[in-house]
Amino acid sequence: MQPQTFIFFGIAGSGKGTQVELLINVLKKQDGRECLFTSTGNEYRKLIKSGNYTSTLVKDSVTRGVLQPDFLTTTLFTNILISDLIADINLIADGYPRT
What we know:
Layout: E1 5-8, H1 16-31, E2 35-39, H2 40-49, H3 53-63, H4 70-84, E3 90-94
Parallel strand pairs: 1-3, 2-3
Enzyme class: transferase
GO molecular function, one term: ATP binding
Organism: Candidatus Nomurabacteria bacterium CG_4_9_14_0_2_um_filter_32_10
């Protein structure tokens, strides 16, 4: 079986995390491959906690309910892939792409 990519979309609290956990368990049982789970929401929460200038801007826009700029979301997602993606692994993305 080839490695697969899955993308989950939905509002906060819609059950994406639950579905991801179920999918990871099924995939591991089927082919034994590890899964790389990416969550732009988790990455934004880490960024906000960092306390730098960019985090202040992001926190302000999140508080106002504004979607983050595409370039920033793409950068966060790309950084995950650069640092954590390996050959022959399933990829599960939560919240990317979102425009």
